[in-house]
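Morning run. Coffee first, then this:
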Amino acid sequence: MKLPPYPMIEPDLGAPLDIHRARVLPEWIDWNGHMNVGFYVVAFDKATDTLCNQLGVSWEYTREKIGMTFVLEAHVTYDREVKEGDPLRITTQLLDHDQKRLHYIHMMYHESEGWLAATNELMLMNIDYATRRAAPWPDWAMERIEKLAALHATLPRPPQAGRLIGIKRNQ
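And here it is:
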């Protein structure tokens, strides 16, 4: 198996992956006194960076002009507000994958109090750097994806995964 021209970290094989931590920054607060909707996505995007680092397809992957990742679709649920300075714990669960894509969900918790604040379900695609077209994951990433996927397959599927947006009507 060909390895990348940069060092990779030893992967965390947690189920779910539970290593991303953050804090609600002052500039993320809106006039309602809680984190603005857009900054939930920023916080989740940083958790995606953590996931990509685990897979060996982080910034170095792009800097070395091997490949990159693009988000194809995202869905956010807002369950409870977080405020300036709140500590965040974001877990990641792989839901599915194929040769080019990852389907996963991030769960944002208030780190010290434990309650769910938000979720972010995403579809991520591997992209060839030169062609900017979809491409299979490199062998080193696929090996790590398959290990994580096997562990995550034992987890219950979060109820927020696969939800459709719409207004429920009483009939």
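The chain is about 20% helix and 30% strand. Good start to the day.
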